[in-house]
Amino acid sequence: PVLYVGGGVLKARATAELKVLAELTGAPVVTTLMALGAFPDSHPQHLGMPGMHGTVAAVTALQKADLIVALGARFDDRVTGKLDSFAPFAKVVHADIDPAEIGKNREADVPIVGDAREVIADLVVAVQAEQAAGNTGDHSEWWQQLNRWRETYPLGYDLPEDGSLSPQQVIERIGQLAPEDTIYAAGVGQHQMWAAHFIQYDQPATWLNSGGLGTMGYAVPAALGAKAGAPDRTVWAVDGDGCFQMTNQELVTAALNNIPIKVAIINNGALGMVRQWQTLFYNQRYSNTVLHSGPDAEPAETPPQGTRCPDFVKLAEAMGCVGIRCEDPADLDAVIEKANAINDRPVVVDFIVHEDAMVWPMVAAGTSNDEVMAARGVRPDFGDSDD
């Protein structure tokens, strides 16, 4: 079995009930991009995020499961991959408050229409009754398999050989150095996936994300709203240099209204996710993804080579914010700590990161989750015995 948890659990404020159900059943839990924080990332039963860029363990747990209990989740294409090959062995219990979601993408063997909090509470009572009658499940072999996948294919990243900043490390250190109750808002693209993977979400109301519509430019205005609503909490907007240029003018609003958010620009000089696809699927034919005039930019004459346009530090300062640039890994922690310590003005940190970093794991669009790649050129072995 797998508990497949979607954003509906957060909307129903059912995280406490979910934890009770998970620990009662002993079942593994996967939380979608919209549900980060619904179940603690640090909990031993949590396998991570499923889907196109989910963890190998989470993707494969759903794929190999004999029972999926979907709570406030949509079975969207980013989670299922090629729909007709998704979870071929699983019976499905699908609970959602919106009847239109039930059976829309995957037929439910047990459909339940209801508020997630009430449904989970009822499931807890039902499981307790079964256990009191002596009906307990043995998931030990399942967990042995899951733990093999989790240990063999963990999340990770390589540091750039040229000594430049790793975007994953930048985001990971932001998460490690910020206060425990920090709220994170992400834009859309590579930085969004890295923020989902490398920041630990152990409580609800710590992650804001446009995971349905995928709206670039979401991070800064979402962070403003979060800081206005929770002024005593630290709020980081994790943005890409592409997303940031869509809504950065709202920093004027932040400065004039004393909303001291912190913005991390993961600046790889490109529309990174599109560039990743161009690298992997289009023979490195890069079209309209370069956002500065570095060595590979076109045209080469305007502005001069090596110029970053705009200069995000000067732009931030022009809008009444503190602007900081970080290029050296040796300065990373000090820069993040400096940003965390500034609370009288918005802070924008321009992290100049390696341009070739990619998001892994990955299930290519239109393919089965069975074809998940742990890293470039690394396809997991899912034999039935010695995975």
From TrEMBL:
Pfam annotation, one family: TPP_enzyme_C
PROSITE patterns: TPP_ENZYMES
The protein's enzyme class: transferase
Gene Ontology MF term list: acetolactate synthase activity; flavin adenine dinucleotide binding; magnesium ion binding; thiamine pyrophosphate binding
EC number(s) on file: 2.2.1.6
InterPro entries hit by this protein: AHAS_TPP, DHS-like_NAD/FAD-binding_dom, THDP-binding, Thiamin_PyroP_enz_cen_dom, TPP-bd_CS, TPP_enz, TPP_enzyme_TPP-bd
Keyword terms: Thiamine pyrophosphate, Transferase
Keyword Transferase: yes
Key word Membrane present: no
Entry cofactors: thiamine diphosphate
GO terms of biological process kind: isoleucine biosynthetic process; L-valine biosynthetic process
Domain Thiamine pyrophosphate enzyme central: 1-123
Residue stretches making up the Thiamine pyrophosphate enzyme TPP-binding domain: 187-351
Reactions this protein catalyses: 2 pyruvate + H(+) = (2S)-2-acetolactate + CO2
A GO CC term assigned to this protein in UniProt: acetolactate synthase complex
Family assignment from sequence similarity: Belongs to the TPP enzyme family.
The name this protein goes by in its record: Acetolactate synthase large subunit
